[in-house]
Amino acid sequence: MRLRNKPWAKDMINDNLDLISIQPENMPGKWQSRFEKEQPLFIEVGSGKGRFITELAKQNPQNNYIGMEVQEGAIALLLKKQVELKLPNLQLLLANGADLSEYFAENEVSGVYLNFSDPWPKTRHEKRRLTYKSFLKQYQYILKDDGSLKFKTDNQGLFEYSLISMNNFGMKFDEISLDLHNDEILNQNNIETEYEEKFSKKGFRINYLKAHF
């Protein structure tokens, strides 16, 4: 979902480069230097306005997190929250998820979150889906051997596609739910995104999976 242009976004980003990286190509293997402590590192690809990643960082001070977003307007809204919160275990990244292997070193990341990614439903746009094989190859590269990928979507077509794509890539599934919010066990620690709350209230089922390479 595209956000309206934020005239103040560029200035805010440039004024807070201690909280957000705009040159990630210089950072592979060095991300821990941007945090107060060296801890397991997790990233969310496509953080939107940031409700999920900020709450995740609050609840898990024992981990470090990076909220990654390609839309300047969206990352600026997330940055605005982080300027107020100043969570020591959260950094932001303005970059395209298609280039992860250029931004992170091999085996640098403990987990990847994909929340309500653009489904790109047209066949000609398949390669843009964040669960297409080229993206999976990058997740495999940056993840540690025991690292995991967690994925949520309300789009049934994208979820079915993702299951097939991951299976064909050789991934193993640890958890799967076709109705996360009605799963008493898996929903216990679920943190909703803004999008998730909106559409679940309209009756959309939330699909979820956790997998590893």
TrEMBL record:
It comes from the Bacteria. Substrate binds at K122, D154, T193, E194, Y195, E196. S-adenosyl-L-methionine binds at E44, E69, N96, D118. Keywords: Methyltransferase, S-adenosyl-L-methionine, Transferase, tRNA processing. GO terms for molecular function: tRNA (guanine(46)-N7)-methyltransferase activity. GO terms for cellular component: tRNA methyltransferase complex. The keyword ATP-binding does not apply. It catalyses: guanosine(46) in tRNA + S-adenosyl-L-methionine = N(7)-methylguanosine(46) in tRNA + S-adenosyl-L-homocysteine. CDD domains: AdoMet_MTases. The keyword tRNA processing applies. Gene3D superfamilies: Vaccinia Virus protein VP39 (3.40.50.150). Its EC number is 2.1.1.33. Residues 124-129 are annotated as: Interaction with RNA. SUPFAM superfamilies: S-adenosyl-L-methionine-dependent methyltransferases (SSF53335). It is an enzyme of class 2 (transferase). Pathway: tRNA modification; N(7)-methylguanine-tRNA biosynthesis. Catalyzes the formation of N(7)-methylguanine at position 46 (m7G46) in tRNA. Belongs to the class I-like SAM-binding methyltransferase superfamily. TrmB family. This is tRNA (guanine-N(7)-)-methyltransferase. It comes from Companilactobacillus futsaii. The lineage of its organism: Bacteria, Bacillati, Bacillota, Bacilli, Lactobacillales.
